[in-house]
Amino acid sequence: MISTFVQHELKAFWRSKNTGKNMAIRIVMAILILYLLLNVLVIAFFMDKIIDKAMPDEDMIPAFCSILLYYYLFDLLMRLQLQELPTLRVQPYLTLPVKRNTLVGYLSFTAILSVFNLWPLILFTPFALKIIAHENGAGVAAVFILAVAALTVFNNYLALYIKRKSNLNGWIFLAAAAALILISTADFSWHLYSIRKASGFLFGHLLAQPAFVVLPILLGAVMYYLNFLYLKGNLYLEELGSRKASAYKSSTEIPLLGYFGHIGDLVANEIKLILRNKRPRSSLVMSLLFMFYGLIFYTNPAYQNSPAIKLLPAILMTGIFIINYGQFMFSWQGGHFDGILVSKVTIRDFFKAKYLLFSLVSTLVFILTIPYVYYGWHILFIHFIMYLWNMGVNATIVLFFANRNYRRIDLSKGASFNWEGVGATQLLLALPLMLGPYLIYWPLSFFKHPDVALIILGLTGLLFILTRSFWIKQLEKDFITKRYTIAEGFRAK
Q1: Distance CA 423, CA 417 (A)
Q2: What is the DSSP string of 401-445?
Q3: 338-362 residue pLDDT tens
Q4: What is the CA radius of gyration of the chain?
Q5: Domain boundaries, the chain
Q6: DSSP state of 394
Q7: Scanning 212, 218, 332, 468, which has its CA 20 to 30 A from the CA of 449?
Q8: Whole-angstrom Cα distance, residue 388 to residue 458?
Q9: What is the 3-state secondary structure (H, E, C) of 307-372?
């Protein structure tokens, strides 16, 4: 039966009207993946020398064992962002004499065929054959490779399980991403525990007692079985639909947004769109990840006496959602844009809802980055200035450029290596967003007035916020002149 499924998928691919385009994309992706795997292979063969230079005072094998858990945490984070869910059009088979276990088994099996599952084997197998086999014997090296494969299977099915659950409730994805961030922060920043020591202990015991390989094998098997049960239980569309309906509240039941009336309803619908679809959801996840961007700058002594450098992390941390999500303002609704044009929702309300969404997310991110005051009150001051700038100036610039984006985005597609909707407009947008604050800051900073420059930046952002109704009118007029061009662009698939 598996061969039948494969034949059907091949026929569906070749008979598709976009076969040529899909083939070109697959060829480019195959070349890129092959290049990445070759780089991983080079790193694998020089792993022992890299570890020796990075940790010269430690024994080779214990030092290697101590970094493995870090890899699997990073691997899980990348899978949540980039790994695609294996799919099969199961509806036609449900009315045929095909066992449900066969369908689910095929979906579960194809999940193994991911390039992510090759990376750890290519990366760690040469080290096991060169070093572990030489020190502990070929049998122990084989057990180690088996454990690596089992943990890879565990990560594979754990990521798929989280992403499938997230399709019903988007908060699960955010909770999983937040959990990974907290686990890393508790180790690197708060020093509550040491993942490195735990990794060295676990894999060190595995090399000393190869029978412990049963544990990672058991973890991989349990995760596979959980995915199998989940897929089997949600194979019927009516069951999946009923659960999805119960997982989301209506917009009027969101207390905070209820105070904004009709505009709040539009924002609530936008939040549902973000949480239910992979690509817009990645914009929100990126905003959370960028909260840690300041650790790169504020912990580096070279940047301590350079306020100009500190503007960049402040802009990105408090405004990355506005930049990354807002530039595709109409593209997210490209599939039903014609309906928006003829609906009772006015474009002015649409712009107001976007401004409100930007304000809510930026305010939340600003509050979450307040702990950076640990590195000085001046940093918190810069964050607040850039928070005002992003909500006032950058939000308006982003919406202005969004009126010039005529490329639709298919929300059903994943976020990884997806350049749909990206054009020259998005590339040009980075210039005013990143350089705008510096055009005010650098001249005054040159005359030894950096704080005055920051105050002017903050007042400019505040002025744009206070005159937001004026800018909304201008954006509405601009949209009216371009609405048919935007609609025509969205209709072209």
Answers
A1: 15
A2: HHTT------TTS-STT--TT--HHHHHHHHHHHHHHHHHHHHHH
A3: 777 777 778 888 899 999 999 888 8
A4: 26
A5: 2-245, 254-491
A6: I
A7: 468
A8: 6
A9: HHHHHHHHHHHHHHHHHHHHCCCCHHHHHHHHHHHCCCCCHHHHHHHHHHHHHHHHHHHHHHCHHH
